[in-house]
Amino acid sequence: MSEYQYYEFLALDRPLTAAERAEVRQLSTRARITATSFANEYHWGDFKGSPDELMRRYYDAHLYFANWGTHRLMLRLPRTLLDPGVAKQYCVDPYVTMSVTREHVILNLTSEDEAGDWEEDYEGSLSAFVGARSELASGDLRPLYLAWLSAYGAWERDEDAFDDDDEDSVEPPVPAGLGSLTAPQRALADFLRVDADLLDVAAEASLALPEAKDDPRALAAYIAGIGNSEKDRLLGLVAADQAARARMELLRGFRGQAVGQHDDSGSRRTVAELLDTTAERRQQRERQEAAIQAAQQALREQQRAAARQRRLDELAQDPEAAWGEVEGLINTRAPAQYDAAVGLLKDLHELAQRTPGQSGEFHRRYMALRETHRRKPSLIARLNRAALTAP
User: Cα Rg for the chain, rounded, in angstroms?
Assistant: First the structure.
């Protein structure tokens, strides 16, 4: 298989200037570059730039995947919207890592599966994941928990992914709403290969998501109470073409920190408990599915047997007519009609075996039919394959 790599970047809070686009252009002559996006694919060679550096300087989201099984998503958020200390709880080296600059927190979420099937259907799909960035900015930590779950879920694909001591690692705070993921979160879970059974087990410790509805009057009162210096800072962001960031910071301050987070340390599970419970649930589900499939197969067999018996009962009413139909089908000299004739002979053969004293009569008539049509090699070949009786 030839090599394939795909790179995509998005600038969400601030578009790139003409000078910045020119700098990025020096890294790739074939990439599709706009003030807010970069996309390119490589079938040979490699990207000359550093995704980490581009994220530090220009972009807020980055998607990468390669045909050897690497999936990578990077998200950059202002430190005012994602506390590095909170994000650190969900880091699992090397699958979920974080870097911090003076203004930003940059998350690096990775999934590896060298043995998996190659799917080339993520081109241009970074926009499907940027909603997770907005959710993190609003205090919803489900995207981070999904990344943590993906990291340890890789242990089921690669037994050498972690050391035995990692079995005792305790899960981070479990966010509310894991049982009702948003569309961006479902897309993220798929991209990071979060096992559905593991997610179901993890969601059992997740509280129901509280209904969130902004009260316009309460929002107006909150804005009125913001200090002048903070208002000036937010207006400065708007003037600097960072209105999206200003809005996220304003709403985050209004709604509060980490809404719906469940932080009961006494009830948190270990990695081993999560994986072992998942394995048990999966085996139970597979046994149930196998039992259902076996029951359905048995029912189909019964229905086929009943239909077969009805067919033979009908044939037993007038077997002579069936023998005549066989001759008529053969005389058409059409291969498809030969197949129909052989099928009818099979029915007559089975009927003879079920009727005492009739096997010999079937054998006599069958051999006579073969002799009559011995110069039809296509028919004789079909009769030989049917093996109705020894020639």
Answer: 34
Q: List residues bridging with 118 in a β-sheet.
A: none
- Report d(CA 205, CA 200) in Å as an integer: 10
What would the DSSP string read from start to end of 5-16?
Answer: EEEEEE--SSPP
pTM of the model: 0.73
Give tens-digit pLDDT for 252-309.
Answer: 677 664 444 555 545 899 999 999 999 999 999 999 999 999 999 999 999 999 998 9
Residue with tokens 């597979």: 286
Who's near 10: CB < 8 A, 6+ residues apart? 36, 37, 59, 60, 61, 62, 126, 127, 130
Place of tokens 């059409």: 334
Q: How buried is residue 294: exposed, middle or buried, by Cβ count under 10 Å (0-12/13-18/19+)?
A: exposed
Q: State the Cα torsion 284-289-293-298 to the nearest 10°.
A: 40
Report how far apart the first and last C-alpha atoms of the chain are (Å, whole number): 52
Contact 287, 199 (CB under 8 A): no
Beta pairing, strands 5-10 & 37-42: antiparallel
Question: Would you tell me how many other CB atoms lie within 10 Å of the CB of residue 100?
Answer: 13
